[in-house]
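Let us practice reading a record.
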Amino acid sequence: MSGANALPEPPLPRTRAASIYAVASGKGGVGKTWLSTMLSIAFGRSGQRVLLVDCDLGLANVDVQLGVRPTADVHSVVRGFLELDAAVTPVMGGPGRNGGFDLIAGHSGSGALGAVKLEDVARIATGLTKLAPHYDRIILDLAAGIDPNVLRFARAAERLVLVTTEEPTALTDAYAMVKLLRLQGASVVPWVIVNMAENRHKGRRVFDQFAMACNEYLGFKPKFAGAICRDPRVPDSIRAQTPLPIRHPQSQAYEDVIRIVEVLNAG
């Protein structure tokens, strides 16, 4: 197919299927979506092919933060108009470029999609399994909260990345998500990222507090992926709808993200 309306060519299969990461928080407002996009860019800059999927089916905003206008989104997939691979939008040139990746956007401003049937969520999860051989990493940006759809996407992932802050409500909601997943039989040990920390030392202390509660009451210790220091250039880049490493290449927060990607790659 050729012409202005042609769909992007699917990437070639990889020798090993992608690892699927679910980025979750329990509580909204902790920077989960921003972190999902930063991880996608950082993995991409390390030479990996990345697919980012906005799994907030009713109030999606990954495309808004990135300032991109997808021609298709997950709404068309849920409605049965497209297969999942046809809803892919390249960002920053797509995989193989400097920090580029692929995006499957959610559907902004349609709260009804947040109540899709679990079988539709399962169909999306199956589609992701089919796409996995074409990528090195698939990142699922989950919705806030702990409703059944969020937990279903979390269980579909091989790795759970839990984003929290030092706020007690953020820690409580992150703990509630892990507890529910454990009660549902999930054995995944989450990687924890403390966002908007005053400094890395205090971020580590917040993690230690969370890990102590998990160990005492749930019987396991989560893994520490790292802390991201509070950086005024982050909200500036979000307002400008421009990724942080492009608008502020030397930012502290992005350096922290790079460290986290190194930890996740090693783990």
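A brief commentary: Strands lie at 19-24, 50-54, 88-91, 101-104, 137-141, 159-164, 191-197, 223-229.
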